[in-house]
Write a structure and sequence with these properties.
The protein is of the alpha+beta class. Helices cover about 30% and strands about 25% of the residues. It folds into 2 domains: about 30 residues; about 90 residues, Tumour Suppressor Smad4, CATH 2.60.200.20. A hairpin with a 2-residue loop joins strand 7 and strand 8. The longest helix has about 40 residues.
Length: about 160
């Protein structure tokens, strides 16, 4: 009597396991497709125009007097809202200058600040990471006009 129930539970467990693996694979493929599309849009793909030989990230970095983050999409913010980050700003869910109402944002997620004459962004050890132009930040990175910063589902554009 218990044997059919046991077999049914085993098959149910295997089915749930396969559905989970299918969901993980689908999510990974979706992220890979999104990365490939944004790479082509940024001019990184095979059709990209070559950079000038003297061009480096630090030389192209924003050095303007007033720098801003413009909201593309973020819960709790109106698209197009501007935040002056000239004096530096911290982004996150907690007690910060730019509050992000996103479940994937840490309380102190990322920091935009001036270092010398260059504006940089740095992840503050967040759980889910900060993305600059769809690339995961692995340390402070200089910001360039038009760069896109993504924290969870929230996206900001950098202007200098």
């Amino acid at each position: 009597m218990l044997e059919p129930v046991s077999v049914g539970l085993k098959f149910g467990f295997v089915a749930v396991l396969y559905l989970f693996l299918l969901w993980v694979a689908r999510s990974a493929l979706k992220d890979l497709r999104r990365s490939a599309q944004t790479a082509d849009e940024r001019g990184i793909g095979p059709q990209a125009a070559p950079l000038a030989p003297e061009a480096t990230g630090i030389h192209q970095a924003a050095t303007g007097d007033q720098v801003m983050l413009v909201v593309e999409r973020a819960a709790g913010h109106q698209s197009g809202s501007r935040y002056d980050v000239t004096g530096g700003a911290t982004l996150g869910r907690g007690d910060v200058e730019i509050v992000i109402e996103d479940a994937f944002a840490s309380s102190r997620h990322a920091r935009v600040e001036r270092q010398g004459g260059v504006t940089v962004i740095e992840d503050l050890g967040s759980t889910n990471g900060t993305y600059l132009n769809e690339d995961l930040l692995r340390g402070p990175q200089p910001l360039h006009p038009g760069d896109r910063i993504r924290i969870g589902d929230s996206v900001f554009t950098f202007h200098a």
